[in-house]
Amino acid sequence: TGLTGSSAISIAISTPPTVTISAPADGTTFAQGDVIAFTGSASDPEDGGQTASLVWTSSLDDQIGTGGSFSRSELSVGAHSITATAIDGDGLTGCDEITITIEAVATVDLAVAKFDVRDPVIAGDDITYTVTITNNGPDAAENVILSDTLPSGVIFISASSPQGSCSESASVVT
Questions:
Q1: Are 87 and 62 in contact (CB under 8 A)?
Q2: Which own/partner contact pairs does 39-42 have at CB distance under 8 Å and 24+ positions apart?
Q3: Residues facing residue 41 across a β-bridge
Q4: How far is CA 126 from CA 116, 121, 129, 154, in A?
């Protein structure tokens, strides 16, 4: 009868960390084997800086790094969703995501063979050199340029090729 009471309840509302990927830029395309620098930061209103705890993952290669900066050069070919994630002391997660693309680089393996029809050559005689280029690689070789310096004392007369063109300048046949 006539009793009154009061109580106070304190509620703390925690917010997740804020994560920002600063490099590489979203939508960037790289060649296979390029060194890619990743940088980012994370902060939390309750816990402060969280950059050191960032975990970076790729949709194609799983975890690719940790912390605020690192570099990679062996990412798989294709489109990657890159995610940087931080977890604060309350277990809340913050993340940022970008997309990058890794394009395949053509693999060629060129072999050059050069031979003459006559050996030995007598001074004043004409000689024919045959140069053959073979691509032993799995991909097509494009825009190949071969330069061959003629030996001292050899005078250029003509050249021909079943593909492309041939020319000579200052004893270099291209």
A1: no
A2: 39/68, 39/69, 40/68, 40/69, 40/84, 40/96, 41/68, 42/17, 42/18, 42/84, 42/86, 42/94
A3: 20
A4: 11, 8, 10, 9
- Rounded Cα distance between 50 and 66, Å, is 11
**How many whole angstroms separate alpha carbon 171 and alpha carbon 160?**
16
Question: Global pTM?
Answer: 0.62
Alpha carbon distance 20, 87 (integer Å): 14
Phi, psi for residue 18 in degrees, rounded to 5: -100, 125
Burial of residue 17, with CB atoms counted within 10 A of its CB: 0-12 exposed, 13-18 middle, 19 or more buried: buried
Which one-letter amino acid corresponds to residue 137? G
- Cα–Cα distances (Å) from 125 to 5, 77, 86, 118, 155, in that order, read 121, 55, 78, 10, 11
**Residue-wise DSSP of 25-89:** PTT-EEETT--EEEEEEEEETTTEE-GGG-EEEETTTEEEEESSEEEES-PPSEEEEEEEEEE-T
Q: What is the pLDDT of residues 46-73, one digit of tens each?
A: 888 999 999 999 999 999 999 999 999 9
Taken as a whole, the chain contains a residue count of: 174
